[in-house]
Write a structure and sequence with these properties.
Elements: H1 2-13, E1 21-24, E2 29-33, H2 36-47, H3 52-66, E3 76-83, E4 88-94, H4 131-142, H5 147-160, E5 162-163, H6 166-174, H7 176-179, H8 183-189, E6 201-202, H9 205-217, H10 220-223, H11 225-237, H12 244-249, E7 253-255, E8 258-262, E9 265-269, H13 276-287, H14 297-318, H15 329-332, H16 335-342, E10 369-376, E11 381-387, E12 397-398, E13 403-404, E14 443-446, E15 450-455, H17 462-474, H18 479-484, E16 488-489, E17 497-499, H19 506-514, E18 519-521, E19 530-535, E20 541-545, E21 552-556
């Protein structure tokens, strides 16, 4: 048996089994996700007669089981949808919300000093989850199959178990101390009080039972009744502030996606409470007047960085939950506004971020999100980015539910610490019932060539990764190129170009430094982009899964 398990694990996680690119003539669909079991679950549902929206429910739910480092029923996210029959587009905002008892100073100690651990570790850090409500809404409003059928693969995997791979164990290792503090969490993820062996089988019967309640009763299976009572009792006994009213009152919101255009490419992306679409489109608007193909490599990167700097600056100044703050969306996406920003860009010199006005209050946004992309041969599509914030969220599992809770309260702007150095101001301050700002950027790109569906995890770097991929699409490249690109990033503050090892050569580093840029090499390659493409001319689909991760991109019936 052990030998069979090891063989199964080797087949599941070996790089050769995880193609970075797959192409087939006129297939039914293309799916790219961060885990092979999630990708296969999407096809399982399609083969049962489901549509891409049913498949999105299945993929989301399986990721919640097999990738608890990045998403889960205790988290939330955004699902960007396009329906081919009538061109209808929407974004389901399933972002978490602050409990009604939340207050701006809730993560300060008795001396008024920030206690970063309070907003990252344990029950107090958890906002009200949106994932279960979003899955029920997506299935009931847009799916073809019963919710129970779309959740069946996740229930089966939670009950029967799956082999944990090296990425899972590496991320769990970074949060081992926190997870180990809570008996309900350690019992699941740290058997015998230590990290499980590579490719050992992880079973989650309590999580399976919670999924069954959602399958039976829809959103009420999570936000009311026995599951809700267990969640509230467990959270409050561990120092959290949830109430049954918090859960009962949670609703997803459908929002109109943001639109932009870059050299004939129609951009469709996430509106607030995500900052992704505004920052992405604003940066592309700034870059639209340049011929980046003709620029030398260092100048090209300099211009992209300066566009990032200005767009992220506006993120810090203006963006938050649109149900709580007024956001000048039309102005920020206006071409004339971009021209004004562009007028301050010099080819020979970087603009120090200190010369841009704005608040520098710190907010955190962790990188361990997840993303998947789906498209079928008719052009129906879903781009979904999901999160529980930091690795394994708050580290706290609500007793008897199997639900690992998020630590998304740390995404509000406060003086409670900063995982990624991202800054934000009053627009993203903690308020009861408010959604925290996000950088998640599920995106569609469309021109005469075809339709691309893409997104990635990566915290504050999500938007810059999608920006680089959009520029690569504009140059005619395929999904395998977008997901593999060397990455660099600037987010206004800290005032430095962050780049992957090898993303800038010695000559580029020298030239950029001469222009006044500070440069920082990040310790590891980052991101886990998942992308699919429908070629309108050949009617072929292709898919790419980031080689930095252990996901799977598949094309076929």
């Amino acid at each position: 048996m052990k030998r069979l398990i090891c063989l199964y694990a080797a087949l599941l996680f070996a790089p050769a089994a995880l193609p970075a690119n797959a192409v087939a003539p006129s297939p039914q669909a293309a799916i790219a996700s961060a885990h092979p079991l999630a990708t296969r679950a999407g096809f399982e549902i399609l083969n049962k007669g489901g549509n891409v929206f049913d498949a999105a429910v299945a993929v989301s739910a399986v990721l919640a089981v097999v990738e608890p480092s990045g998403s889960g029923l205790g988290g939330g996210g955004y699902w960007l949808l396009h329906r081919a029959s009538d061109g209808f587009e929407t974004m389901i905002d399933g972002r978490e919300k602050a409990p009604f008892a939340a207050r701006k100073d809730m993560f300060l100690d008795s001396r008024g000093k920030a206690d970063p651990k309070l907003s990252v570790d344990g029950a107090l850090a958890a906002a009200i989850p949106g994932m279960p409500a979003a899955l029920a809404h997506l299935s009931e409003r847009y799916g073809r199959l019963p919710l129970a059928e779309s959740l069946a693969p996740a229930i089966r995997i939670a009950e029967n178990g799956f082999a944990v791979g090296h990425k899972f164990l590496k991320l769990l290792g970074t949060r081992q101390q926190v997870v180990g503090r809570f008996r309900s969490s350690a019992r699941i993820f740290l058997p015998q009080g230590r990290l499980p062996a590579p490719f050992s089988i992880l079973r989650q019967p309590d999580l399976a039972a919670t999924l069954k309640q959602i399958a039976k009763s829809g959103r009420d299976g999570f936000y009311r009744g026995k599951v809700a009572a267990k969640l509230v009792n467990s959270v409050r006994s561990a120092g959290g502030i949830w109430t049954e009213e918090d859960l009962e009152s949670y609703r997803v919101v459908e929002r109109r996606p943001l639109k932009g255009n870059y050299h004939g490419i129609k951009i469709t992306s996430s509106p607030p409470s995500s900052s992704g679409g505004i920052v992405l489109i604003e940066a592309l608007n700034v870059l639209s007047a340049y011929d980046l193909k003709q620029a030398d490599p260092a100048t090209r990167k300099h211009l992209i960085v300066e566009a990032m700097r200005r767009a992220y600056h506006d993120r810090a100044l203006y963006l938050g939950d649109p149900d709580y703050v007024s956001i000048p969306v039309e102005r920020l996406l206006n071409a004339d506004y971009a021209a004004g920003l562009r007028s301050t860009i010099r080819f020979d010199k970087a603009l120090p971020s200190a010369m841009l006005s704005g608040e520098d209050e710190q907010e955190a946004e962790a990188a361990n999100t997840t993303h998947f992309s789906i498209i079928d041969q008719d052009g129906n599509r879903v781009a979904a980015t999901l999160s529980i914030n930091f690795q394994f969220g708050s580290g706290f599992v609500a007793e008897g539910t199997g639900v690992l809770l998020n630590d998304e309260m740390d995404d509000f702007a406060s003086s409670a610490g900063n995982v990624y150095g991202l800054v934000g101001g009053a627009a993203n301050a903690i308020q009861p019932g408010k959604r925290m700002l996000s950088s998640m950027t599920p995106t569609f790109l469309e021109n005469e060539r075809g339709v691309a569906v893409l997104g990635t995890p990566g915290g504050s770097r999500i938007i810059s990764m999608v920006l680089l991929a959009a520029l690569d699409y504009a140059e005619g490249h395929e999904p395998a190129s977008w997901v593999s690109l060397p990455r660099f990033h600037h987010q206004y503050l800290p005032d430095a170009i962050q780049y992957e090892p090898g993303a800038l050569n010695a000559s580029e580093v020298k030239d950029l430094a001469a222009k006044g840029h500070q440069l920082t090499v990040v310790p590891e390659r980052y991101g886990d982009m998942q992308a699919v493409l429908w070629n309108k001319k050949t009617r072929e689909l292709s898919a790419g899964s980031d080689p930095r991760g252990e996901g799977m991109a598949l094309v076929g019936p």
